[in-house]
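Supplementary notes (optional reading)

For those who missed the lab, this is the record we used. Protein: Nucleoside transporter/FeoB GTPase Gate domain-containing protein. Length: 545 residues.
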Amino acid sequence: MKSLKFLTLRRMEAGIFLLVFFTIFGTLGSIMGVPNMLNTLMKTAYSLLIDTVFYLMAITVLSGALGKLLVEFGVVRLLELLLRPLMKPLFNMPGVASLGAVMTFLSDNPAIMSLTKDKNFSRYFKTFQLISFTNFAAAYGMGLIVIVFMSSLGYAYASLIGLFGAFIGSLTSTRLMQFFILKEHPEYAHEHTSGGNEQQISFKTEEQSLFLRVLNSLLDGGKTGVELGLAIIPGVLIISTLVMMFTFGPSQVGTNATGEAILAYTGGAYEGIELLPKLAGKIGFLFEWLFGFKDSTLIAFPIISLGSVGAALGLIPKFQANGVIDSNTIAVFSAIGMCWSGYLSTHTAMLDSLGFRQLTSKDLIAHTIGGLVAGTSAHWLYVGITLIGTLVTPELVGSSKGDAWMTDASGEKITTVYTSTLQQYNNGSYTLKNWYKDVEGSHIQFTVREDSTLHINNAYTTREGYYYVTIDEKAEGDNVHYAVFYPGEKYSKFSGNAQSGTFYLYAFIYSKQSKLIKEGYYWFKWGNPPHPKLVTPDDEQATTN
């Protein structure tokens, strides 16, 4: 009878699996076409491997080497000592718990598993504290890698706001887990682990010369980084690829007679059926309030972070190319990415190693809430800091109305002339109000370099000398959404005074679907200045892909 029951359950399990499998891929194949679906699956995975995974692996190798150096020469223990005073009042944890946060920040969540098995470490914890230590320390998983990755894209400041958001998420998750544990097992409040000596918690290698300690730390840390980079590959290639196919839409293959985009499935990378954005759009107001998300495709990042933050990072280049991320988004992504950091796949194993598998459901609930709080905290912290920044805005010292228009490389106008306003501030910066025709609220904030070229201050990202600035954040379809400026040498110039002057810079105007609408020189002139000579940037450099 037992054998029959086992076989019946296995058959039912196989049937359910086949139903789910064919539902997922049948839906994709019926909409995209089976050949296109298979080609997109392979090409997206290949593109992620080449463009994202190897880049992430380079970061993990370098950060792994740095982390090993910090461990070898006692910097980690010093950081632990500095953080100890926060542990008891904020987290209700012993001071030594801070060591776990530093370790996961430098590497990943599994780093704490060896600590919890060390009696020299665990002797300081009551039982409920040791269990909730998983929630506390795992909220900083891959933190260094996340911050380095975001910083490399020009978002160092936003990623640090995200780190503080992860701290708040860690506090929420830890305290909630302790509440759940003590409510169900009050006896855990008095039980202590035993034995051990804190002085024996050491990460130093055997006695060697300084040169060998440095060399071995770099090589061993780099090797650990390679292992972590390899561990990221399945998540990025499998999870990210599938989520992208449910997030993005078909490719643009041309335009019709009226200028509208023609969309079709070609089997190219990053195509999909846009299911997740449609579902998220039903409660888009909630995501906008919680996280400040203005594009429903952004919800893909938190979803993937549930299983792997490394895989979630693979989405960032595509979001950036689509012009849908800004500093607020990066702050939220950093907070959620660090706090969740694939907890669905790691927390179960960590609790199982501690012998408390029965509390896994409580742990997952607490950490889910913690991650949501982390993202929300990062968003509102960013809003608050931005608001404070506007309250201490430099003093306006001058304002000039003038003519604005765009021309092609030969100087032929490609737009009509319209009026904009240039404002000058006492710190030497400028703001051009309503710079793009018919789009109220479109601004360019810039400073002038010593060579009279422009530096764009309000770009939401920069790539290889190109500055991305939102024109109309509410734009849909083929309407103007963002501009890419190239203010490099010869392609931008500012000259003039309060009475008369001009500036120009090369601009590419794009739609929400990253369709190039127009390109050319953007001009603003007040008074009657001379007309400067124009130079056109190289077309290959000017692409946004």
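If you only remember one thing from this example: Residues 43-389 form one domain.
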